[in-house]
Amino acid sequence: MGIPSGMELLVIALVILLLFGGKKIPELAKGLGSGIKNFKKAVKDDDVVEETKEQIEKAEDAVSAKVEEVKDKAAS
Q: Quick check: is 37 in a domain?
């Protein structure tokens, strides 16, 4: 099993055309394209969420350190 040759691809395309018809194929391609677009957007949004969580954790650590510093100065 490997990559289909030119003749095999032609047969596959012909079978798809027979199964779905010429009018349905553009609709299927459009749906596939929008699905890929939505998937990429979701992955990007997930990356943004992770980056934001990391920034929040860093800010919390910085605030905690500053609070400890202020407490130490007040205790002196």
A: yes
Residue by residue, pLDDT tens for the chain (76 residues) are: 678 788 898 998 888 888 888 788 788 888 889 989 988 888 888 777 888 888 889 999 888 888 888 888 777 7
How many folded domains does the chain comprise? 1
Residue 60 structural domain: 6-75
Please tell me the distance from the alpha carbon of residue 67 to that of residue 42, in angstroms, as a whole number.
37
> pTM for the full model?
0.46
User: Could you tell me the CA-to-CA distances from 65 to 4, 7, 25, 27, 61 in Å, in that order?
Assistant: 62, 68, 60, 57, 6
